[in-house]
Amino acid sequence: MTQGSAHTLDDLNGLVGEELFRSPYMAIDQEHLSQFSFSTYLDPAFTDLTASKNNPLGAELVDGFLLLSMLTAFQFNNSPLTATGMYGFNYGLDRVRFTRPVFLGERIRCIATLSEAEHRADGTWRVVTDNIIEVEGADKPAMLARWVCLYATRDDHTDVG
Question: What is the pLDDT along the chain (161 residues), one digit of tens a residue?
Fold first, then answer.
């Protein structure tokens, strides 16, 4: 697939097995890690990054669930799937593996490949992507995740309120 090219839901069957996108690299900073801790209701005693007593890998370890939650931003910011009135639902994850620790300041990116696309009888699409979170310069990925989403479009005249 050509980076930057737009595709509609009707294009999906022809894209199975292809890379959807490679995001740019980005670093995870202290502020976002702290906000993640706050938003997930973690007790501050477990997220004090000034001391490494809570984690044998050190205080600057990025939580794996933060990496997982970043799939949303990677997909929204980089996916070539577009359609007027298109919306998506998180349907679940079939498999997630955290294969390498990530530390504050390391630069990561997502590579997403379309592994399945099913146009369902109700008009929705069940879309499965294999997502690899790479760390710049590392010899193995930090995370592998198979993400299942449902996509649909709505008629511009549909009352959603």
Answer: 445 577 777 777 888 989 999 999 999 887 777 766 666 666 666 555 544 455 566 667 788 888 999 999 998 888 887 777 778 889 999 999 999 999 999 999 999 999 999 999 888 889 999 999 999 999 999 999 999 999 887 753 333 33
- Report, in this order, helix, strand and coil percent for the chain, each rounded to 5: 25, 35, 40
DSSP state of 7: B
Token pair 């292809």 is found at 18
Total-model pTM: 0.81
Which residue blocks in the chain are alpha helix, DSSP H? 30-39, 64-78
> Which pair of tokens denotes residue 150?
């449902």
Q: Which amino acid is at 33?
A: L
**Number of helices (H) and strands (E), helices first, in the chain?**
2, 6
